[in-house]
Every structure is written in C-alpha cells, then in structure tokens.
C-alpha cells in the first residue's frame, strides 16, 4: 500500500509512504549537500512521534519549510499506519498563544486556503487583524485530510501578531475531524460556515469544549465566528449571535447568500442582510464583519464598498488578498474627527463626575450614557490600534 | 592578506598582483589611462564581409588571444555561440573571453572549455558556465568578475586588454556605425561595447541588418570599426525580457515592494528632483510601479530614473513623473521603442554610468536604489555571485556601482526563501560591502545599517517596522533546519573585483560540506 501527501509545487514537498519491515527515509532535493541532513532529521522526529517504525518514506522537497514537511510526512504515514498523531502540533511546537480579548479590533479578516503552502508562508506578516485559514470551500474534497494536518502544524509553528482563526467544514461534513487536528495548534477561534441556528452554534460549543478538556486547556478558550450566508441564516442571525458567550463576531458571506436567494450583487440587494446582521450583532453585544470584496485588484471599488459597510455599522470586512488590508483598515479605523469627538465626550464625562453632576453636556448639548460608553470604546479601540495589538 | 571586509586573499592571483579592497572610496587612481591602438583607413575601403570566418581572418585572431562581447540580447543572444563555433571550426584555441554578461543560452561555452577553444574567462559568470567552472579545473587562470563600471575601468586602465571585440549590432552601415535600438531585431543600446571597440586591437560589428550610410544613433562609431560582418541572425529580441521581468503576484514580494516605497517616502530624499534606480527583479519592478503612484499622489516630479529600461519605467516617463531616463540596457521592447521615440529617454554607456576612474558617475546622482541579493549578512555585506552551496552562478552586473552611488541603497529580500536562509552570519562571497548598503527591507521588518542612524530615526518616526537584522534572521530561521555549509579548499576559481580594481573577495573551490 502506497500513500502520498503534498505536491511538487514551490514551497511544498511530496511525501510517499509505504509499509515496510524497517524504517527508511529517502530524500530528494535541489541542494542535497546543504539540505538533506536537516530534512532527514525532521522526518525522523515525526516518525518517532507517530511511533512509526515499519514504514518507508520518500520525500521530494520543493523548498518546504519545516512545518510543511512535518505535516506532509504525518499525513502520508498516518494513511499507511492508520494511527498516531504528531503532538509537535500539540504544545511543544514552539508557539504558545494567549487568548485574545472579546472586543479587540477585528477590521480585517484575511482568507487563505489551507492547502497551499506557498500561500501560507508569511501569512502572519501582512498585518491582518484576523487571519482566517480556510478548510472549507477553497479546499477540494480530496485534500481536506492533508490540509487539516498542514494547518495544525502551521498553527504550532507560526506566532501570529494578531489573531488566527480556522474556518472549518460543517460539523457533520468533516468539521469534527477538522477540530480534532487544528485545535492542537490552538487557534484564537473557529469560523462556522453556513450558520443558521443557535443549535448549530451550541453543537460547535460542545465539540470545542470536549476537545479543550482533552487537550488540558481552559474550556471556553476558543472564540466562535458564525458566518451568515444563507436566507435562513440571515433571518435567524439574532439567535446565532446570542447563542453562546464564545461568539464574538458575526460575519456575512454574500456569495452564498445571493445564490440562495437568487439575487444579483448590488448594494441594494444586500442591504437587508447586511443591516439585519449588524443589528443582530449589536443586540448581542458583539462585532459584525462584512463580506469579502471579490475584485482583488480594484482598490477604488473596495474603498467604496468598505465605506458603505462602515456606514451601516460593520466593524470590519473580509479580504481575499493581503493587498486589500490597508484599504479595509483605513475604512474601519476611527477618523481624526471621530476621535476628537470621542475625547471631548469622555473629558466632559470625567468633569461631570468630578463635579458630582449627573448630566454630561458637550457644547451645550446633553449626552446620554450610551454615547459616553461608545466614545470610551472608540478611545480604547484607537489606543489598541496605535499600539498595533489586540489585547 | 586580509582586506577591508575581512576576507583572506592571496598576494597574486594567476599572473596578476592583487590590490586588496581597502574601502568603497579608498582608491585614488594615478597616472594615465592605457594607450589605445593606432588605426587608420584608406580613402576607399570595403569593411563588409559576408561570413564570421572571413571577419576572424581579417582580424588575425590566433591562439591565446582575448575576445569580447556585449550582453544586450541577454537570453536571446546568438553571437557569442556563433563566434566561438567559428573559432572552433578554424582551429583557434586557448581564447580568453570577456563578455559583459553570460546567460543560460551560452551553455555551449562549456563544450568549448572542455575542448580547449576557450581557456580563460574575465567578465560575468552566469548559470551553466559558472556551475561548470566551479566544479572543474579547466580554466587556465582564475576568472575575474567585474561590475559594469569596473569592466569599463579595467579596459581603460589597461588591466584588461582585448584583441578582438565582437559586437552584435541590430543595425549597422557599411562603414561601421551601429545601433542597437533599430533594425530587424533590436536589443537595446549596445554601448557596453563602446569601450571594447575603442581599446581592442580589432573591432568587428556583426549585423543582420545592413543599411546605407549613415546609421544612427552611432552607439558604435565608424572610426573604431575594422570589419562589418553580415550574418542571417544575431539574436531574438523577444528573449531579452525572459526570466526576471514579471510583475510579481506573490503577497510576500508585494509586501516587500510596498515597504520599500514606504521607506523611500520616509527617507527624506522623496522630493522634487528625486532620482532612483530599480532592477529587473519582481520586487524592484513592483516597487518602481508603486513608487510612481506615490509620486503622482504627492505631486512630485523626479529628475531621472535608471533601469535597465522597462515598460514600467517608461510609463513613469510618459506620465510626467520623471523628466528623463538614463539607460545602458533595455529589458523589454517597450523600452527600446521609447529610446527611439523619446529624446528624454537617453542612451548612456557604462563609463558614464559608473566608471570609478572618472570625474563623474550617473550612479553618484542617485538618491535611492533598490537592489536584490542572494545573501545578506549581519554586517550588511551582500552576495550576488555565489549560492549558499559555494557555486559561482551570477555576475555582478551593476550591483556594486549602484550600491556605492546611491544616497540610500535598499536591498529587497524575502527573509524566507524555501529552506535556504538568505540572511546569514557571514555571506559566502562579498560582492558589495556593507558600508554602501543602507537598508534591508524584508517581509518581517526593515533593518537599517547602524551607520545610518539618521534613516533609522526617520523610519521610526514614520511608524515603519524597524528591527535589527539579527532579529529578523532569528525569526525566519525558526522555520527551517540549519543548512550544512560548504568547506572551501585553497584553489581559487574566481576573483571578485570591487569597482575600483581592488579585490574584495575570491571564490574558492568547494571541497566538501561540513
């Protein structure tokens, strides 16, 4: 029986594994003199971790980083031996991740397919508030298994300066297997596609909790971002938003939604869904993120759509290419005028409190408590942005 | 002896006494330049011949002589192979070749090295020829690698004496005037050969497009030309843009390009009259494009840009964002068209570009340059010649000339490039010393040479992610196993000259690996 993982694409490697009476590792690479020993040592570490003695592997390297190599070896060998997991991804992979705060800025969520090493390298360098590694729509069925192992190893190897999330498959269609692997790498959160009910969210909560306990982690340490992208989901997004404490943000997926309702994409045709999602998120005290803008190179179009989403109350927007991040951040960061306004209100509130006056007023106009609270939130938010951190 | 970048170099290399590198601007040339050969012509003379063999005979080329070529056709060149094949057929042996650069298309030189037609190389060393001589022992003397400006200086100064210059000329007249920007297969300026044509004992213009007198612009002049050889084909213009000339789509490379432009904007040099040079790599091209957009937004008009010329640089000229382009090479057909049509797009020879032994280099007028690298080390030294396995695979090009000239030299470099680390403790070979490298831009942060505290302060004030190079190196190296390093023997394969003629490093033969 012979099993393969990976490819000969740049940044990847192809690993072939077969049962054998003893362990053999063969390496092919462009610069064998320089690279062969390092590649071999990584392979042996993985085989040790998997307890795989009776297996023979061929590695054809095309410039893969260690975590890619590790993932490909594990994927191929597990197909042959049927057991084991490389717990390098489980804790001693070098990266430990702190829980992020509920209401940290999440202006951008950058989607990247989870099965292409070339696209995953340097993911953490683009400044996205949330990097969102996808195991769902962008990964073909035949590659899901290898992809979830790759994402596990990536999560263990890469320190993300902001948040890293994983979009899993629906729980009954591979999502549970996704969680088994990727939670070992401790992502900040998990995105649930095609969310349509509180039940579905709660099912995910139970699945997360079981695995968090098994991994010895604090239950509740993984956030949830439901993606609302169907007619049913839009109509019931209020219950989705309020389904659990772990839900910190609702995200809108316009492509599937349009297909579902039979709409063409215009600002008008999406207005109902967008406004409903923002209202549901606000009612539950969480954030809302707008759908992606599909024309990667059209900066002007992106700026218009991001400004529109900001006008509607969204906190952020999806990106399909790193080059979209800057425009999205510009659109969803408070402007100088807004910050000045917020500072004036907070200052007035501070004085009112000092002087023991109940009512706050700015420029002779009364300011309600919720407005003061919103102003405080903006100032906290701006401070976080200027520090370049979420927590 | 140890030179000023701490490299151990011998007192002699082959027949030559070595002058050690003493600092980027330490050399003080003295005395006179080398004499040029005396030439004359009768009132009526027929220079045109119809075969390379006849041309070679007329030049009295014999065993052991030195011949030279330009590289304007890049991967599309036919002339180097045609001339060497003709020499082989005529039984000429032991030639020293001095190309301004070599490419993959010149693979057949390997056969001529094996058969003894060619025995020495001075000039560039690209691709298969470099790999071949790095492994073997076929060169009679170590190769000498020089920058574009350094080669011009060496010929004028008499370090490099050429017997016959073979000059591919897309259009020529019967009296020996020639240009590279017109003709059936234009390759861009051929002024790299202008110094060869003046100093070589004989000079042959090789063309596939002979036109009535006079052909212009006269990049090669009648007074220098002994023979005009007419052949069917000299090269493929479409191949001059092969390889590196793609606008990158890689998120990492685009990020580096964007950071580079942000660094330029924050540098203090970004003002009216600003000048810059970018190379032909994907990051440089993207940075040039983004820089143009930034100039447009800021309402800034630059004084000049240098290339080689590309459609991206030409676009900046057409949009009025730079007043002039100074070009010694063309990297695509748009640049060649622009050289023909736009007087603001000027041809420049490598002497004007970068000759150390002169009263002025165009590179000294540069505010900013962005260049690539194979390796950078913690002293900011740059290697573009050898790979990490010790093999000599690339020429110097204009790297030294531009880095030394520009007020701010930026190296654009992915901190992670597969399994082989580009940021190292010590470069395998020093091409360009850290003293003329100011900034290294990576996807993981911007490192500033400690000599440029002024730039560091400006970058920090602009909110750019400035980090020590060592920290960027550590972060990137966490993703890969340490590689084995080559162990070098004593035998020297090539000398790397600094642009002033001193030796900055030598390439030794690889004996094994750690």
Q: What name does CATH use for the topology of the largest domain in chain A?
A: TIM Barrel
Helix/strand-derived category of chain B reads alpha/beta
Strand adjacency order, main sheet of chain A: 5-6-7-8-9-10-11-12
- Count of helix runs of chain B: 14
Largest sheet entry of chain A: 8 strands, parallel, barrel
Strand content of chain B: 15-25%
CATH architectural grouping of the largest domain in chain B: 3-Layer(aba) Sandwich
- Count of DSSP strands of chain A: 14
What is the molecular shape of chain A?
A: elongated
CATH class of the largest domain in chain B: Alpha Beta
* Known CATH architecture of the largest domain in chain A: Alpha-Beta Barrel
Looking at CATH, the homologous superfamily of the largest domain in chain A is Phosphoenolpyruvate-binding domains
Radius of gyration of chain B: 22 Å
CATH topology of the largest domain in chain B: Glutaconate Coenzyme A-transferase
> Which structural class should the secondary elements of chain A be placed in?
alpha/beta
Oligomer: heterodimer
Distance between the termini of chain A: 49 Å
Instruction: Estimate nothing, just give the exact number of structural domains of chain A.
Output: 3
Q: What is the count of helical runs of chain A?
A: 14
- Taken in chain order, the helices and strands of chain A follow as EEEHEHEHEHEHEHEHHEHHEHEHHEEH
């Amino acid at each position: 029986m012979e099993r393969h993982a990976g490819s000969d694409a740049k940044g990847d490697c192809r690993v072939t594994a077969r049962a054998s009476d003893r362990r053999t590792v063969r390496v092919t690479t462009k610069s064998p003199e320089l690279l062969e020993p390092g590649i071999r040592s990584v392979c042996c570490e993985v085989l040790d971790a998997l307890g795989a003695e009776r297996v023979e592997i061929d590695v054809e390297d095309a410039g893969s980083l260690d975590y890619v190599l590790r993932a490909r070896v594990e994927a191929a060998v597990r197909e042959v031996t049927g057991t084991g997991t490389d717990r390098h991804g489980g804790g001693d992979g070098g990266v430990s991740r702190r829980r992020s705060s509920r209401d940290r800025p999440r202006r951008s969520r950058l989607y990247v397919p989870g099965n292409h090493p070339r696209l995953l390298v340097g993911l953490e360098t683009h400044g996205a508030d949330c990097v969102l590694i996808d195991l769902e729509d962008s990964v073909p069925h035949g590659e899901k298994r290898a992809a979830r192992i790759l994402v596990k190893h990536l999560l263990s190897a890469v320190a993300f300066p902001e948040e890293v999330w994983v979009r899993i498959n629906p729980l009954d269609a591979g999502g549970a297997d996704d969680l088994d692997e990727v939670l070992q790498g401790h992502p900040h959160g998990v995105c649930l596609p095609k969310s349509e009910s509180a039940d579905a969210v709660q099912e995910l909560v139970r699945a997360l909790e079981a695995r968090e306990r098994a991994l010895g982690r604090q239950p509740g340490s993984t956030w949830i971002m439901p993606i609302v992208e169907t007619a049913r989901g839009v109509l019931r997004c209020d219950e989705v938003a309020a389904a659990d404490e772990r839900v910190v943000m609702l995200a809108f997926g316009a492509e599937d939604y349009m297909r579902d309702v039979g709409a063409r994409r215009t600002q008008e045709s999406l207005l109902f869904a967008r406004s409903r999602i923002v209202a549901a998120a606000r009612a539950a005290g969480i954030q809302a993120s707008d759908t992606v803008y599909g024309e990667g190179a059209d900066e002007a179009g992106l700026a218009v759509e991001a400004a529109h989403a900001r006008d509607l109350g969204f906190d952020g927007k999806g990106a399909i290419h790193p080059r979209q991040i800057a425009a999205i951040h510009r659109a969803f960061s408070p402007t100088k005028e807004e910050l000045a306004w917020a500072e004036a209100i907070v200052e007035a509130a501070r004085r009112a409190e000092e002087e023991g006056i109940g009512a706050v007023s700015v420029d002779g106009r009364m300011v309600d408590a919720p407005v003061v609270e919103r102003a405080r939130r903006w100032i906290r938010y701006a401070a976080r942005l200027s520090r370049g951190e979420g927590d | 002896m140890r030179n000023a970048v701490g490299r151990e170099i011998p007192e002699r290399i082959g027949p030559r006494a070595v002058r050690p590198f003493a600092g980027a601007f330490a050399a003080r040339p003295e005395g006179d330049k080398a004499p040029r050969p005396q030439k004359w012509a009768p009132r009526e003379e027929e220079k045109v011949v119809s075969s390379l063999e006849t041309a070679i005979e007329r030049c009295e080329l014999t065993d052991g002589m030195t011949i030279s070529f330009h590289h304007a056709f890049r991967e599309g060149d036919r002339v180097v192979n045609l001339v060497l094949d003709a020499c082989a057929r005529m039984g000429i042996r032991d030639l020293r070749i001095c190309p301004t650069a070599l490419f993959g298309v010149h693979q057949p030189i390997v056969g001529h090295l094996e058969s003894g037609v060619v025995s020495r190389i001075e000039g560039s060393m690209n691709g298969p020829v470099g790999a071949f001589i790095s492994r073997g022992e076929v060169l009679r003397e170590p190769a000498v690698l020089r920058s574009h400006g350094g080669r011009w200086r060496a010929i004028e100064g008499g370090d490099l004496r050429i017997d016959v210059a073979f000059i591919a000329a897309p259009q020529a007249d019967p009296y020996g005037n020639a240009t590279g920007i017109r003709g059936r297969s234009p390759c861009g300026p051929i002024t790299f050969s202008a110094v060869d044509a003046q100093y070589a004992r004989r000079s042959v213009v090789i063309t596939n497009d002979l036109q009535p007198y006079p052909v212009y612009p006269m990049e090669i002049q009648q007074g220098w030309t002994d023979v005009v050889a007419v052949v069917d084909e000299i090269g493929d213009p479409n191949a001059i843009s092969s390889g590196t000339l793609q606008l990158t789509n890689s998120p990492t490379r685009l990020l580096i390009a964007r950071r580079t432009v942000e660094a330029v904007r924050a540098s203090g040099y970004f003002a009216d009259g600003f000048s810059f040079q970018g190379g032909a790599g994907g990051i440089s091209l993207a940075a040039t494009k983004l820089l143009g957009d930034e100039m447009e937004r800021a309402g800034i008009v630059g004084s000049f840009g240098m290339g080689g010329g590309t459609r991206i640089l030409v676009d900046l000229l057409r949009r009025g964002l730079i007043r002039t382009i100074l070009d010694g090479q063309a990297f695509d057909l748009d640049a060649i068209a622009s050289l023909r049509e736009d007087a603001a797009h000027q041809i420049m020879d490598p002497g004007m570009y970068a000759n150390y032994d002169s009263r002025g280099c165009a590179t000294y007028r540069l505010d900013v340059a962005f260049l690539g690298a194979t390796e950078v080390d913690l002293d900011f030294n740059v290697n573009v010649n050898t790979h990490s396995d010790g093999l000599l695979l690339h020429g110097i090009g204009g790297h030294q000339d531009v880095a030394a000239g520009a007020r701010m030299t930026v190296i654009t470099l992915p901190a992670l490039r597969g399994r082989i680390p580009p940021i190292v403790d010590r470069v395998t070979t020093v091409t360009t010393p850290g003293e003329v490298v100011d900034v290294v831009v990576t996807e993981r942060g911007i490192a500033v040479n400690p000599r440029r505290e002024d730039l560091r302060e400006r970058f920090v004030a602009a909110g750019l992610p400035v980090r020590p190079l060592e920290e960027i190196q550590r972060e990137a190296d966490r993703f890969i196993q340490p590689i084995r390093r080559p162990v070098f023997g004593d035998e020297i394969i090539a000398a790397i000259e600094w642009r002033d003629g001193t030796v900055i490093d030598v390439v030794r033969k690889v004996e094994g690996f750690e």
